[in-house]
Amino acid sequence: MASSDPLGFSPQTNISVRGLNGDAIGYVLEGMPLNDIAYYTGYPSQFADSENYDSIALQQGAADLDSPVLNAAGGLMSLRFRTPPEKAGGLVNVSYGSYNTNREFIRLDSGELGKTGLRGFVSYSHGATDNWRGPGRDVRQHVDFKLQKDWGHGSSAALLGSWNQAIDSYYPQVSKESWAQDGIHGANNLAARYDVTDTAGGSDYWRLYRQPERTLYLAAPVQVHMAHGLTLKATPYAQGAYGNAAGGTQIPTSGLYNGTQPLADELTLPSTQAGWATVRADYTQRSARSGFTTALEWKRGVNDLVLGYWYDYTDDNEKQQFTPMSDDGYAANIWGNGGRTGIHLSDGSLLLGTSNHTITQTNALFLGDRLSLLHNRLLLTAGFKEVMMTRTGTNAMPGAAYHANTSSAVPLPRIGARFQIAPRHQVFFDTTTNFRTPAETALYDVFDPTSGQLESKGTAHVKNEYSISEELGYRYTDDRFVGSVTLFNYNFTNRQVATLISENGSFVQSTLNAGGQTSRGVDVEFGLRPWHHFSPYVSGEYLHATIDNDIAASGDLLPTRGKTAVRSPTLQAAAALTYDDGHFFGVAALHYTGHQYATFMNDERMSDHVTGNLAVGYRLSDVAMLHKPEFRMNFINISNQHYLSGVADPTLNAKDTTGRYGSTLSGSAPDYYVGGGFAALFTASTGF
C-alpha cells in the first residue's frame, strides 16, 4: 500500500494487488458499489468507520459474478456492516497522538424497538491531525447508521448509510531528483506562509491546496427466502458526492482564453506581480448516482442457479474555475462552488479551464450455476455476464468537440472448480474475464487558459481494457494451521494505468493506455491459529509483469516490448505475530516491498523498503456499566523510515529515448508518494 501519512487521514493513498492499482479493485458495501464511476478509484478514508464493520474481505483476482463493479481485475473488497444487536448499548473511544492527532467516536445501539423486530445503530466520529511533514491540518467528520429487521428463516431487510465530510491538506508528490536533494524537508513541502515574491509567486501556499469533500452513501439491502429453494436478493442504492481538488497557479491579467476563444478582458486582481496574478484553481466534481442490484437464486438438488440484473445511473459534473487571492493569502470558499467567488469576465460569465458533463449508464445481466458433486467434495462453477455501458458527455469549452459519446457491450464469461482432496486439503482453479473503460477525462479536450493551446486531446473512440485471469492453487486447513499457495496469470489488452495530471494547477486523475501486459506470479501465505495465545502469520508474493508491445508516443513507437510493467514489485513479503490472552494483547507486523519501476521504459525506479508497526494494549473485565474497557498504544513506522511508498504518476520514459522510427522522444520525470513517518497513538475505549 502506498500511503502519504501515517495515520490514514489523507486520501493520497493507493492499495495495489498483484501490481494492479487501486482503481483495479472493486469496493462493495452490502451490495452497493463504492467506486467513483468516473475514475474507478475507491477512497477507503471516506468509507465507514472501522468500528462499524463486521467483516472486511479482499478477494484477489476475481469479483463475485453478482458484484456491481466493472474494474475488479485486481480483486474485490467486500465490506459488511455489523448486525445491530438485540440489546441496547454502545461503544465510545477517544484517541490522541503524534501531530496533535485527536479522534472521538461514539456509537449507540437501539436494541429491539418495542416488539417491531427493528433494531439499529448510529455512530458519529470526529478526527483531526496536523500534516506530519509541511504545513496543514486534516479534519474529518463521519456518520454511519443501519436499521435492520429479520424474519422467517434468514429473510432480512435493512437501511444503511454513511456520510463523510473531510477537509484534507495536500502532500506534494516528489521526483527522484527533489527527493535526493530535500527528502521530507525543503522544497518537497508546501509553503507555510504566503509570499508572492517567492519563485512560485505564492502559488505554493498550503491553503491553496486544501481539498474538501462530502460524500453520502445510502442502500437498502433485502433478502427474502421463498418456497422451493428460491431466494431473492435486491439492493437499491443512492449516492452523492461533491469535492474540490484545489491547487495554486498563476494566470495573466490580460491575454486570457476560454478554451480557444481569446478574451479581450483586462482583469484587475489582487496578488498581481508583473501582469500575473496568483489564484486558486478549483477543480470541482459533483456527482449523483443511483441504481440497484437484483439476483434470484434457486437451489435445486446439486445445482445452485443465479440470475440477476444490475442497473446504474450516474450524473457527473466537473468544472474548473479560478478564485483570486487576497494580498494576505486568503481565497474565499474552499469548496469552490456557486460561482460567486470565481473570477468573472466582463460579460458576467466565469473564467473556466474545464466544463464537462457526463451521464453514465450501466446495464449488466448475469447467469451462473454452482454444481456440487461427490458429496460436496467437488464444486464446479460457471457464469456469464453481459455488461452494456454508455457515456454521454458534453464539453462546454469553446473550441472543444462538444459531444463525447461512447458505448460498450462486453461479454464476460467465467468458470471455476474446487476439489476437496481430503478433509484438510483442497485444490482450486478459476478463470475470469474483466473489462473497464478509460477514465472519464479521456473523453474531453483540455485547453490552457493562459494561451488557448490544447493541453490534452480527448477522444470518444476510447479503447477498453480487457483482461483474462487464471488462478490455480492449494489450501490447507486444520485445527492448528491454515495456508495456501496460488499461481496466477493475467493477460491484458489496452491496460489502463492510473496517473495524476496537472490541469491548470489542479491535480486530476487520468489513465494511460499501456497496451498489452502479461502478469504471472505466485502468492504464498501461512498462519497458525491461536497457540498459547500466540498467532503468527507470514505471506509472500513473486510477480513477473511485462509489457507486451511498443507504446505509441509523439508519432513514433517507444521500445517498451518486454519491459517490466510499472508499479509491479517483483517481491513482497509480510510477517505478523499476534498475542491475546483475553486481557493483554498486541500485534507486531513487518512488510517488505521490492523495488518497482516508475516508467514504461524502465529507466527510473523507486527503491525497496521495509516498514514495521506495533500495537499493545490491555483489556479489563466489565466494570459497573462499562463493558470491557480497553487501552491501546499504536506505533506506526516504528523505525521512522523515510521512504518513497509508491508511484504517483508514472511516465513513458524519464530520459530522452530514441523511438523505433528514429525520432528522439523527450523524457519526463515521474513523481512519487512519500511514505508517512513515525507516529504514536493512544486509544481508550469501552462498550456500555
UniProtKB/TrEMBL annotation:
Query: What is the topology of this protein in the membrane according to its UniProt annotation?
Result: Multi-pass membrane protein
Q: This protein's superkingdom? A: Bacteria
Domain TonB-dependent receptor-like beta-barrel, first and last residues per copy: 201-629
Tell me, in one coarse class, where this protein mainly resides.
membrane
Keyword Flavoprotein among UniProt keywords = no
InterPro entries to which the protein is assigned, alphabetical: Beta-barrel_TonB, Beta-barrel_TonB_sf, TonB-dep_rcpt-like
Annotated PANTHER family: CATECHOLATE SIDEROPHORE RECEPTOR FIU, FERRICHROME IRON RECEPTOR-RELATED
- Protein name, as recorded: TonB-dependent receptor
Species this protein is from: Acetobacter farinalis
